[in-house]
Amino acid sequence: MATRVRPSNRRCAVIGGSGFLGRHLVEKLLARGYTVSVFDLRQSYELPGVTFHQGDLCDKQALLAALEDVTLVFHCASPAPASEDRELFERVNIQGTSTVIQACQAAGVQKLVLTSSASVVFEGTDVKNGVEDLPYAQKPIDYYTQTKIQQEKLVLKACDQRKGFLTVAIRPHGIFGPRDPQLVPILVDAARRGKMKFIIGDGSNLVDFTYVDNVVHGHILAAESLRADSPICGQPYHITNDEPVRFWDFMSQVLVGLGYAAPSLRLPYSLVYGLALLLWLLALLLRPLLAFKPTFTPMRVALAGTHHYYSCERAKKDLGYKPVVSLKEGLARTLQSYPHLRRGA
């Protein structure tokens, strides 16, 4: 009878590895000596040492092919937060994650690290130095947050030390960096269309922006700390740059760094939020008849006008985490990576 070769603990899979965070994670894992499988709907790049598997997150058999001989899985797949497609969020973040858990358990995967979000405790009101023990948002103000809450609950509940299946959730906030398809491109597009002239609120609200290398670092620390005797089993961890900054100061630095004017006109927060809520409800009512998508949603206004920054103390204590790239350096690297978005380019 043939003896099954025990899989190497340096063999891992990144679900959603073709995305922004996923690709950065894959590159760092390779540099640390891991053999990497990527599972995604598409293959957006090629790297030596990486095996790509294309498939649907809800297809258990396709996932099993990607998880063969894998001991560690990173689950980074999620629709963009800006999407308004409720069915897509539910399919990927809830149904897809449930299938990932089932496939991991069937394939004998030992560790599952989820990319969650700090927004799971955010309801559109101030969060200052928020800790992981804050309750989940009772009234999440977008489908992304609503489904990320359910996703995180599924993954953390699945942790079973007796069966040797260990899970942990990383909650980053405001990820940015080179190749980001969201923050910088969307900001520049708004500036080019003349829609970045206004500051929502008084401009004093502090938020976390997190450079992508720090998020990757947090994921890998969690994976390598995840053992049956570890306090991190079944727990969530905030990972940020640990440098809260005024939201509009950061936006201005990005814009000015690429040659655009910083916003300078102020609008009352309550007025803009009320208008955004009204337009969002109107779009919801008209959706069957008219394709109408407001520029500002209640979530976007809340993110722009409230305090929302989070404590990394638990990650420092349990994971030995500290940021590897400062906010200043991360912003400089990011701006250098977008020469095509500079004004006049």
Cα(first) to Cα(last) distance is 65 Å
Number of strands: 15
If you compute it from the alpha carbons, what radius of gyration comes out, rounded to the nearest whole angstrom?
A: 20 Å
Largest beta sheet, briefly?
A: 7 strands, parallel
The fraction of residues in strands falls at: 15-25%
Helix content: 25-40%
Trace the largest sheet across and list its strands. 3-2-1-4-5-7-12
The secondary structure category is alpha/beta
Question: Mean pLDDT, nearest integer?
Answer: 93
Helix and strand pattern: EHEEHEHEEHEEHEEEHEEHEHHEHH
Shape: globular
In DSSP terms (H or I, runs of 4 or more residues), the helix count works out at 11
Description:
The protein is an alpha/beta fold. The protein is 39% helix and 17% strand. The protein contains eleven helices and 15 strands. It has helices spanning 20-31, 60-66, 86-107, 143-157, 183-192, 212-225, 247-257, 269-286, 298-305, 313-319, 327-336, and strands at residues 11-15, 35-40, 50-54, 72-75, 111-115, 127-130, 166-172, 175-176, 198-200, 206-207, 210-211, 236-239, 245-246, 265-267, 308-310. The strands form five sheets. The protein has a seven-stranded parallel sheet, sandwiched between helices. It has a two-stranded parallel sheet with strand order 6-15. Helix 3 links the parallel strand 4 (72-75) and strand 5 (111-115). Helix 1 crosses helix 6 and helix 3 runs parallel beside helix 4.
